[in-house]
Amino acid sequence: MNKKHALLQRLENIGKVLAKNGDVLALFGLGSVGTETDRIDDYSDLDFFVVTAPGCKQRYIDQVDWLQETYPLAYAFKNCDIGYKILFEDGIYGEFAVFEETELEHASYTGGRMIWKAPHYTNDGIVSGKAAIPSRRAASLDHAVGEALTNLYVGLGRYARGEKLSALRFVESYAIDSILSILHLVESEVDYYPDVFGNERRVETRFPQFAAVVRDMMQGYEKVPESATHVLNFLENIYPINLRMSLEIRALAEQCMSERDLRA
C-alpha cells in the first residue's frame, strides 16, 4: 500500500470508529489530507479535527482508545489541552485536536476536507475556518528589510562576545524570516501550495531563485559572519540599504571572522 492510500485509508477508518459513537458530529482532515491531497508524498502525515456534541469532547481527549481501535499506537504525546501528536505502529504520524462545534468559530485553520459526519449533521461549512488568520506576508519591503538589517547587526555583536547560538538565531532565523515575508514582492512566485501559517513551506519550489542562494545565508553555528554577509548582499540587491549600517555590519562581520580565525 502506498503512503497516500495508507493515510487516506487511516482517516476513513478513524471515521468508521467514531461513527459507532453517538456523541461525535464530524471528522475532517487538514493540510495534505485536507483539500491538498495532490501533494501527499512519503513524508506526509495526518492532521485532523474531531468535532463532538456539546459536553462530550473531554472523553476523546482523556482516552485515545478510539484511535487504538483504528490501529495500534506506538506513541501518543498530549501536546496541548485539546490534542495529541501520535505515531501508529505502522509508522504513520499524526496530529489532531478535539473541539465542540462552537469552539471552532475561534480556531485558526483552513483547507479542511470532510471525512465523516453524523447523518443528522448539516454544517458542511465547518471545514473552512471562520477566524481571521493574520497574514505573514509583508505589504512592503521597508519594515522587513529594516528588521533583517538590525538583526544582522545585533547578531554579529552576539557572535563577537561568544554568544554564537543567539547570533545564529538573529542572523539565520530572524533575518531570514523577514526576508521570507517579502519574497513575493521581489521574485515571481510559483503557485505551489502556499501555507498561510509558514512562509518557509515549499519555498524551494515557490521561489527557486531565492532557494538557489539561501544556503549561503545559512552556513551554521561557526560561520554566522559569512551568513550575515550573504544576507546583507541579498538585501542590498533588493533595497537601498543605509550605507552606514551596511559598513558597520560588514566591518563587524570581518572582525568576527578575523578573531575566530586567530583562535583556530
Automatic annotation (TrEMBL):
SUPFAM superfamilies: Nucleotidyltransferase (SSF81301)
Listed name of the protein: DNA polymerase beta domain protein region
Originating species: Paenibacillus curdlanolyticus YK9
Lineage of source species: Bacteria, Bacillati, Bacillota, Bacilli, Bacillales
